[in-house]
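Quick illustration, no need to memorize.
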Amino acid sequence: MKKGVLILTMITALFMVLAYSGNQESIVICASSEQFRNDEMQAQLNERFPDKNIVVMYMSTGKAAAKLYAEGPTTEVDILVGLETGYMNKIKGNLADISGMSRVPYMDGVTVEDNGNLWVTWERQAGAIIVNRTILDKYGLETPQTYADFLKPGYQGLVAMPDPKSSGTGYFFYKNWVNTMGDEAALAYVDQLHGNLKQFTESGSGPIKLLKQGEIAVGLALTFQAVNEINNGQPFEIIFPENGSPYSLTGSAIVKGHETKTGVQEVFDFIINDFLLYDKEHFSPEQIYEGQVNSLANYPQDIVYADMQGIQDDQEKERLLAQWRY
């Protein structure tokens, strides 16, 4: 607990240094997307609002939620981007009403009903079984087609997945196992999987990094990250699990009390109605709105999604993570 408080204090101090430039108050955006996406957001915001001092800072979704939960409306953060909707539920008392601000024609099933108009969907993060063909061939292993396949002895030390306690990607795989197997069977599966794992990675991108380095043959990872690497020449293959592609939703919001701060609503409007479209076309193409354009080559079509009932329930998440033994 003390360590967590210290980390949050240090993060807050960093924000305070960056949030002010002379006497000009900044608009601080806490974004949980990959750094290259955040860099593009920063560049477009600088171009669109040259008269404003806008700071886009990366923070993992769990740490961002912890910061807002601890600090509430007194935080220097004005806008949240890409925070898992389960965490949004946990901190919803600290979020402003943004009724009517979104003009995006969202598809059915990707919006959060009855959220009090406190956030809008930012993206669908979906995963799959990703394999490095070179490493599979090196060890004479068959391409796994199901979760059970990489429990076989030959895969020992050649599998990685994100830790559900620190990664939303890891949690949505775990939640899907619970939905399809039940609690006990899902935990029994993880016990078997642990015997073959090289590691539970801290971040959702961890398995992709290990696959690139040739340290593992199989990773449970985000589909769009795998496609990016395939387009860059990596010998990866994407296999969708038998129960469909697991996923979670993330959202964007304004911190309560900050909606009246000069420029915040204007910047937020640009992010959720303009930059969102660019981000989905070029970076994170899982479909969330009607007519969505995808410029990312080789992206899988007609993806079947898994049963993710309860993925946005923060109490369910706490219950399941309390049962996680690793």
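The chain has two domains: 2-124+248-282, 126-247+303-323.
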